[in-house]
Amino acid sequence: MSAPLLEVRGLVKRFGGLVATADLALDVLDGEVHAVIGPNGAGKTTLIGQLSGDLRPDAGAIHFAGEDITHLGAPARSMRGLARSFQITSVFRDFTALDNVALAVQAHAGHSFHFWRPARADGALREPARAVLESVGLGHRGDVLAGSLAHGEQRQLEIAMALATRPRLLLLDEPVAGMGLEESQRMVRFLRDLKGRATMVLVEHDMDAVFMLADRISVMVYGRVIATGTPEAIRSSAEVRQAYLGEDPAGSVATR
Amino acid sequence: MASAARSAWPAPRALALLATLALLALVPPVAGLLHQPFYVELFRRVMILAIAAVSLDLILGYGGMVSFGHAAYLGVGAYAVAVSAHYGVTSGLVQWPLAVLASMAVAGVIGAISIRTSGLYFIMITLAFTQMLYYLGIGIEEFGGDNGMRLTTRSQFAGLVPLAHPTVFYYVVLGVLAAAVGLGHRLVNARFGLVLQGARSNEPRMRALGFSTFRYRLAAFAIAGGLGGLAGALLVNQTEYLTPDFMHWTRSGEIMFMVILGGMGTLTGPVLGAIALILLETVLSGWTEHWQGLLGPILVLVVLFARGGLVGLLPAPRTGAER
Amino acid sequence: MTLLLVCEQLLNGLQYGVMLFLLAAGLTLVFGIMNLVNLAHGSLYMVGAYVATAVFARTGSFVLGVAAALAATLLVGMAVEVVALRTLYERDHLDQVLATFGLILFFNEAVAVLWGRAAIHASVPPFLSGHLELPGGLRYPAYRAAIIAVGLAVAVLLGVLVSRTRLGMRIRAGASNRTMVSALGVNVRLLYTVVFGLGAALAALAGAMAGPIFSVQPGMGEEILIQVFVVIVVGGIGSVRGALVGALLVGLVDTLGRAFLRPLLATVLSLSAANTAGPALASMLIYLLMAGVLLFRPQGLFPASRG
After folding, report:
1. CA-based angle B191:B196:B202, to the nearest 5?
2. What are phi and psi of A33, to 5 degrees?
3. What residues contact A118, with CB distance under 8 A and at least 6 apart?
4. Closest approach of A68 to chain B, Cα-based (Å)
5. A216: phi then psi, degrees, rounded to nearest 5
6. What is the mean pLDDT of chain C?
7. Separation of alpha carbons C55 and C51, rounded Å
8. Which pLDDT band holds residue B237 (cuts at 50, 70, 90)?
9. Contact B48, B81 (CB under 8 A)
10. How far apart are alpha carbons C115 and C122 in whole angstroms?
11. CB distance C219 to C108 below 8 Å
12. Alpha-carbon separation of residue A96 from A141, B198, B320 (angstroms)
């Protein structure tokens, strides 16, 4: 079996007295869609922050494609092929959708110490950006200001920007958050179509989306992973049900 | 589907700028006709401050960096010219590049320390460093201390460009202003400028995409400092007197006011703002010696109610067009 | 450079530091809790100085002068808060900087209209015009000693307020997490007004005490304000403890530097070199201190909010 693309060992993160990540271990295999689920307060957001490079872990190690990236910042991780989308939509609101994606392309097209040529006329940036926009279904909205796009379109733009950096691993932080039924179904279908293009780590609350997309699921409770397995295994695990849903093995809801 | 490269400026702003530059070009002949050479001096001063305002707009309007210490670079540029002249180096071909390089270097050092911070810290730190340079200037008796010193002679250009001649100097300044705005326009729309604007718009996003924003901000800070230094070189030639007051932090406030009054993040705005502010000051100071007391509330009102500045009064550019 | 001289300068440094603390404490709380850059804080200090000096000159009572200064400054401060600052809470820092800069221009001209541009004379009150006899033969002006005493007393009171009262708890919470505080149901409007008023009162006190030893003139607020900024950056935004440590540090470094750097340099450099470099370097010392602190702690020594 080949080495995991993303390997997390002994990850610890404390905020004052609160232990958000408690000796967490995680493996993500190349090409899979790996969902991370857990009740509120389980520490999923903190985990994403440490994987993306926005938070420094207090202890532990993160290896990506064999390299130790634990002490690298977000830009360096992005350059190594680790992209993310944000839970709260984070785009460049006063730029057009096409500008947004072109900027993502630009980030990985060498350095940006170019002072003369208009970047908006640079085919090397615009063409790939247009193609990615097209592929997420926003091709016709390229000239709209990102701030004026509908919420669902902004989420699609988020993903487009992450894809434009041609990542090996995509960290998706609640991609269908705040979406209506139809929108989220569309997004799920889209993500499913992405399945060959990049490995995905998906943090999500929407269980339908999770069970439709995930190859494997890890369940987090109180800052650690308590179970990892296929969707069927997780769905039928009594341990998961108890920790997550508060059911005791006899089937009645726990009062604690 | 390829769209035509958008190299034309958004029409209203470009027109306003070109009209302004054209009008400025007409000042010397008109002033000659009216026998009022004072206007040449006045508008030359306006243009020099406009260059300073344009340099600030690069980092403030486009980069989102609230640097309250920009006057420091005018001061460094002015000192470079005056001190060189003091020691016998009067050629502008040496002085002016020296002014630019010196102010870029100082901006680089100050930027390296302050850009690591943000928000309130950044504002206070840039202000503090300006004050430090001001006190340094006051402390150096050799160059006049807080009284300053006369400039021995305006920058020489091997007799080819006599700055002592008011109109020649005027057109030199106009040329520098036009070049500054033109080069600035290219810069903000090039890859470098987009990184700057992106970092202003959403810095975490930029870092997540892979941009190490610090180095680009630092470079922009240095470039803006260098252009400010050039404005300082012109300023000391204009006043023919060097004083640490060039670096006083209230000067920074004045330049920032110009950028806001005209409309920040537009390059046209700072030019309009410089004209508007100096004209306003000239008119107000004609009414009362306490004109600053009137200027203050005007500034407050502009900030509270007219944030878009003068450029905001023009029709808005097309969506997605270059700024 | 005798021991006596060193002790005297140490006390002067302490006195200056305490003045800086009075200004910094209020301002750092305004920064930390309301996220408001208020450049006009120095103007409140100036108003305090002018009113105290004028009232003392008129009535002959220093205490009345101080009381009047507190009242006048609070009044002016509240007016400014209602008229201008309320809208600025929601705005970004640039707007706040520019608007409060406009206020500075206004206030400086206003005092010039009322009292002229020249510095006005403020005398030390008779009951404090003597000298204290300290151990070792040091004679120290009673007025300056009083400033130190008042300043330290305020520091202690503030410390008690911040760490042991409910208001203090809200202040600390607000400084470390503004949005959470309002989500928890604290009356944020009222908290802001109280904090601002506290800052104004401290500034007024500093101004009232400053009259006799600093020159009372338009623009006096800004000269000291920038040093207050240095204090806050060094101490950390939102922290009263940071303001105290920062203020004493800055006060001592500045005072001792101005007094002793030139003589110290003269022992290793030529006299003329020391005469040039000494004062110039001395005036730069506190900024170099700030740069040094920032290299290791970009958030200051005791930042109230982490991350």
Report:
1. 120
2. -105, 115
3. B5, B6, B7, B186, B189, B190, B322
4. 18
5. -135, 155
6. 87
7. 6
8. very high
9. no
10. 13
11. yes
12. 9, 12, 6
Distance CA C221, CA C242 (A): 22
pLDDT in tens, B178-226: 999 999 999 999 999 999 999 999 999 999 999 999 999 999 999 999 9
Predicted pLDDT of residue B6: 39
DSSP state of A225: E
Residues 187-206 of B with CB under 8 A from A: 187, 189-195, 197-198, 201-202, 204-206
On whether residue C302 sits in a domain, the answer given is no
pLDDT value at A201 more than 50: yes
Q: Please state, for a pLDDT cut of 90, what percent of chain B lies above it.
A: 59
Instruction: State the average pLDDT over residues A13-24.
Output: 87
**Closest Cβ–Cβ partner in C102, C222, C233 for B299:** C102
CA-to-CA distance for A106 and B192, rounded, in angstroms?
10
Interface test with B, best of C33, C80, C92, C106 (most B CBs within 10 A): C106
Average pLDDT over residues C198-217: 92
Which domain CATH number covers C282?
1.10.3470
pTM of the model: 0.89
pLDDT tens readout for residues B28-51: 999 888 988 899 999 999 999 999
How many contacts (CB atoms, under 8 Å) link B and C?
122
Q: How far apart are CA C39 and CA C42, in angstroms?
A: 7
Contact present, A2 and A30 (Cβ < 8 Å) = yes
C126 located within any domain: yes
CA distance C93 to A195: 44
> Residue C273, Cβ neighbours under 10 Å: how many?
12
| Cβ contacts of B197 on chain A, cutoff 8 Å | 95
Report how many Cβ contacts below 8 Å link chain A to chain B: 111
Show the beta-strand stretches assigned E in C122-164: 131-134, 138-141
Return the top range by mean pLDDT from A40-54, A213-227, B42-56, B154-168: B42-56
pLDDT at C305: 63
Nearest C-alpha in B relative to A126: B2
Q: ∠ CA(C181), CA(C184), CA(C186), 5° rounding?
A: 65
Confidence of residue B7 (pLDDT cuts 50, 70, 90): very low
- Structural domains in chain C (count): 1
Question: What is the domain range of residue C225?
Answer: 2-296
Nearest to C200 by CA among C34, C21, C43: C43
**pLDDT confidence of A246, banded at 50, 70, 90?**
low
